[in-house]
């Protein structure tokens, strides 16, 4: 399994998930389809699927167009999210295969939108799994609570994403890393020291690979963090990540 990131719009990320033995590929949130199709052509890929994380235009807005440009491509999206161009609705726990070796597991991670789906993707034995978290989990932060409650976001992050079968590389929907870490510094400075400061100093931009090298693991036993999180969790939420 190989994953390529394709920066789109101002700070969005789309991704290509590639099954290397068959050259079949899935695209995640192809808001600017031409860019993904060019990247696919460059690498000799056969686009089979679209995985849509949620209904917002900067994620699902390219679905109709990519269907015109790639006849027969299947478009997946959450059953509660009314995703534009969706041909295959998914529920929590549904599985989709790609090529010879890739399995995609749909995880319902609501709050940013009601039907938000994260996709947990596994390849061959020994390869690192990946999780595509859209606007639920960013690096060092989480998405705005547009259609859900703090309890739902907590469940999505700390239970659903926090209990993945194996730790996974996180591929998120936007480049918000520095902004999130600046906020995190005001909430939990000790956790941001070291790696977080190094990232802030590295001028993270959308043209570079997203900082997905944080392994996502549950970390919810620290009462002092709960207290601070509860008091600062309106709007852009914050979840401490392990490094
Ligand atoms: Zn969104």
TrEMBL record:
GO MF term list: hydroxyacylglutathione hydrolase activity; metal ion binding
EC number: 3.1.2.6
BP GO terms, sorted: methylglyoxal catabolic process to D-lactate via S-lactoyl-glutathione
Ranges of biased composition (kind: Basic residues): 209-218
Catalytic reaction(s) noted: an S-(2-hydroxyacyl)glutathione + H2O = a 2-hydroxy carboxylate + glutathione + H(+)
Domain of life, per lineage: Eukaryota
Annotated region described as Disordered, given as residue ranges: 204-227
Pathway the protein acts in: Secondary metabolite metabolism; methylglyoxal degradation; (R)-lactate from methylglyoxal: step 2/2
InterPro entries: Clx_II_MBL, Hydroxyacylglutathione_Hdrlase, Metallo-B-lactamas, RibonucZ/Hydroxyglut_hydro
Enzyme class of the recorded protein, top EC level: hydrolase
Domain Metallo-beta-lactamase: 11-174
UniProt KW keywords: Hydrolase, Metal-binding, Zinc
Any matching Pfam family: Lactamase_B
Co-factor(s): Zn(2+)
Recorded family membership: Belongs to the metallo-beta-lactamase superfamily. Glyoxalase II family.
Database matches in PANTHER family: BETA LACTAMASE DOMAIN, TENZING NORGAY, ISOFORM C
Protein name (Swiss-Prot/TrEMBL): hydroxyacylglutathione hydrolase
